[in-house]
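Hey, quick one: can you model this chain's 3D structure?
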Amino acid sequence: MKVATAFFGLIVIGGSAVLHAANAAEVNPDAVKIIRPDDFEWRDPVESPTNSVSLHGDRNVEGEYYVYINKFAPGNFSMPHSHENDRFITVLKGTWWVGTGTDYDPENNTVPVPAGSFVTHYAGEVHYDGAKDEEVWVLITGVGPSAGIPAVPPN
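Sure thing. Here's the predicted structure for all 155 residues.
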């Protein structure tokens, strides 16, 4: 009987903890902004190897700090390009493949960058990147403008 009573007491306490968690406090939106993945507003990829969601700022505005996520579908790569300013990238999901220079060959001239890795794209330096056989998400931050400047292969 004591065992059954103790077990019932644990269920009541455990159930109370679950109910308490379900009624968790809310944060002050003036102090903290939370955007959950289900709330991301992905843009439709138009003539781009990626889909993206802007989390903060506008990457096209001079001097503005931005944060966004690029989502690469399997087999999608950017063409060789550079950026006006440094960009800082964290691989969130999948293995991202990165190459440098204008010799565009994603199959043979890229290196794997696994989830959790940090990458810097230096201003004015030519690179290309993408996903081979799995979806890849990368978090990109920097200061605008961030538009890709197409690289011209040497003659």
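One thing worth noting: The CA atoms of residues 5 and 100 lie 67 Å apart.
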